[in-house]
Amino acid sequence: MGLAYEFDWGVLWRNPYGMYLLQGIWVTIKLGLIGWAIALSLGVLIGTVRISPWRWLRLIGTAYVEIFRNIPFMVQLFFWYYAGPMLFGEALQYRINSIIGLNYYVAIIALGMYTASRVAEHTRAGFSAISRDHYYAALSTGLTHPQMYRHVIIPYALRIIIPPLTTEFLTIFKNSSIAMTIGVLETTFMSYKIDSETFHGLESTTGACLIYLALGLVVVRLMGILESRLKIPGMIGR
Amino acid sequence: MFDAVSSNLPFLMGGFWVTVKLAFFALAGGIPLGILVGLGRISRNKWVYYPVTFYVNVIRNIPLLLVIFWFYFVMPIIIGSPLDPFPSAVISFIIFEATYFGEILRAGYQSVSKGQIEAGYSTGLTYVQTTRYILIPIALRRMLPSMITQSIVTYQDTCLAFVIGLPEFVRRARIVDTLEVRSIQLFGFVAIVFFITCYIGSVISRRFEVREQEGG
Predict the structure, then answer these.
(1) Does domain A13-229 have CATH number 1.10.3720.10?
(2) Residue A1: pLDDT band by 50, 70, 90 thresholds?
(3) Could you read off the pLDDT of A217-229 as tens digits, one per residue?
(4) pLDDT tens, B194-212?
(5) Which of A32, A125, A143, B179 suits a disulfide with A173, CB 3.0-4.6 Å?
(6) Nearest CB to B187: which of A70, A78, A195?
(7) B3-214: CATH number
(8) Is B183 within 8 Å of A74 when comparing Cβ atoms?
(9) Which residue does chain B place closest to A84, by CA atoms?
(10) Residues of A whose CB is below 8 A from B194
């Protein structure tokens, strides 16, 4: 009977398991933050490109978004990790495979590129929420196209899309758990590792769940502060 | 060029079939549960509203991977014997995706005008009948594009059952890859199959979106 299971919550803090979880949290935070930096810069760039007046650039932007959105993140991760080095040819392949912590770098880049496609869609939606008059006004003051985007449209659009970006920022921490499938030692991996050493997977995964919940609360709080600081005067408050 | 794929095609497509079955069960359970979750989220009864809201907020803030693991660990304790990866994965997907469908449908329910609900009551329908014949059908139709998009996400998510050893599409590609080391074509093939199926889904979703707008 299943009631024979004896809970042992000590696996969450007892030596060395508590240390495992702390190391995992640190890696999760690094994956999320660096991945987010890539996602935000690349995503805004691609979102901008998708509404640019140049057809070829728009086409590249659309292709990027469609490809990254329609393939599961885990498949992308496997492709970059296992097939990626092979794309560079025999000679370089072995050099790349011998990089220490390759899985970690691949996870960050893959996470950033995947999330960028989602950020790009939100950015585009933000642009279309800005009225045409702003574009005309910017151009009529003598700004060039790049200047208009840099000084008028992008700062405006970014503030409009802070709420959906908050969701994406939360999602990147959740998606970073998938990096465990290529052996990155983040929180989910560590909770699984504790299970394989103690057979107390229920306690360790419950602990990991609480860690993600706490992380989520911190992110929501920080983004809330950011949102109120950057509020555009005269817009309807939330 | 695709030699490793073509010589293992039956094995790989068997995995694709597992993926499709998993997605089917996840949706067949997740959407009905999502309909109820959405109703709970607009309920005025606090004994319904707060527990459902708690469930939704907790699950939506946890990675799906952890939910899969958690159920894989907790099910043997509940039923007293080890559970196969497939039913365990199905249960975790239903519990997880229902919260996402629930939030989509909540928005759908809230978009139904009060007048329509009151019209239902005034013709003598009970609460259950009004919900069953007016609220749910209108919300489902209105939210169809988002529901299709979330179904595509669910289908993509199924590959995460990889972690509990389910021999689905990606797991099988990985097995072939460890034997033959043809990563580019194997994972390229998996990526192309996912891309084509998901792209078709997104085109269908967009078509419904346009139709909805034209219908006013």
Answers:
(1) yes
(2) very low
(3) 998 888 888 888 8
(4) 999 999 998 888 888 777 6
(5) A32
(6) A78
(7) 1.10.3720.10
(8) no
(9) B184
(10) 70-72, 75
